[in-house]
Amino acid sequence: MSSTKASRFFNQVDQREFAFCQAINRSLRFRPLHGYFQVVSRLGDGWFWYALILAMPLLRPTDGLAIALLMATTGLICTLTYKLLKRRLIRERPFISFPSINCGTPPLDRYSFPSGHTLHAVCFNTVLAVLAPTLALVLLPFTLSVAASRVILGLHYPSDVVAGAVIGGGLGLLAACTLADEFAGLIL
Q1: Residue 103 and residue 28: Cα distance in Å, rounded?
Q2: How do residues 100-137 score in pLDDT, each as one tens digit?
Q3: Residue 50 contacts by C-beta under 8 Å, 6 or more apart in sequence?
């Protein structure tokens, strides 16, 4: 899709999602909710995931190192994927396109589609769902909070978050199902 076609498409979608974005963004008026989603978003910048990757060998002595290496590798693939898509598709963030939507926290980059935070969170949770299901279940509320924070804070449209979740889930499933044995073999 050329950037001109993508721009026209996103302009139409933006108009359809505006009212929902504006309504959900109003929750920023409630300071505890705003604070919670700011913290979640900041942790979703990578800090939480870096700590988890480093902790995996301690949390799971038998296969934690292999899972950590797999998560680090998929994290790099996710970063390359979403950066490439953002540069090619160029969708402005909701708070830029619609001044009535408040920006609840500064964005890490300019463009909106897809949500990189959601892409990474869902990817990592999917890898864990396949390889460490109990841990994935424990982390699911954080993953869902990261995804919700992106819309609530005015940084993404719901379709950005859905696209990030689909791409992240697909990459996580692909990695867990095809590369997990390879990484385990490297460690053993």
Answers
A1: 9
A2: 888 888 888 888 889 999 999 999 999 999 999 999 99
A3: none
Task: Provide the residue ranges of all domains of the chain, joining segments of one domain with +.
Answer: 32-187
State mean pLDDT over 47-72.
Answer: 92
Q: Measured between alpha carbons, how far is residue 176 from residues 100, 130, 183 in Å? A: 41, 6, 10
Beta carbons within 10 angstroms of residue 180's beta carbon:
17
pTM (2 decimals)? 0.86
Using the predicted structure, report yes or no on whether residue 38 has a pLDDT greater than 50.
yes
Distance of alpha carbon 123 from alpha carbon 149, whole angstroms: 17
- 47, two tokens: 């800090």
Give the residue from 69, 153, 161, 152 showing the smallest Cα distance to 122: 161
CATH code: domain 32-187 is 1.20.144.10
